[in-house]
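2024-03-11 09:14:02 DEBUG pipeline.ingest accepted 1 chain
2024-03-11 09:14:02 DEBUG pipeline.ingest length=99
2024-03-11 09:14:03 DEBUG pipeline.predict start
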Amino acid sequence: MGKIATNKQTRALFCITKKDYRNKNLTFDQASKLIEKLNKEKNFEKSSDTKTSYSDIWITALANGEREMQACNPTPMVVQQHQNIFDDSSKVIAQEIVY
């Protein structure tokens, strides 16, 4: 018996088939062939009625995230480092304002 299937392979098989292959004792080669076969059988083409591509969705999400980030007004926080890190009443040796 050859090398056993990797976690990545069993995860790929689960994503394709929605079946758990972790305890099926598949070899690395068997899993590879099965993944290849299932990928050929599955139709990964976009349907003709799909008007928005994944890249369009990504660009829109990125623009919305950047717009929200620009509108964000965080509350500043003071971070201090004490001489004795276990004693908050010890002398402060470093201090920064973090936004």
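2024-03-11 09:14:41 DEBUG pipeline.report Residues 7-41 form one domain.
2024-03-11 09:14:41 DEBUG pipeline.predict end
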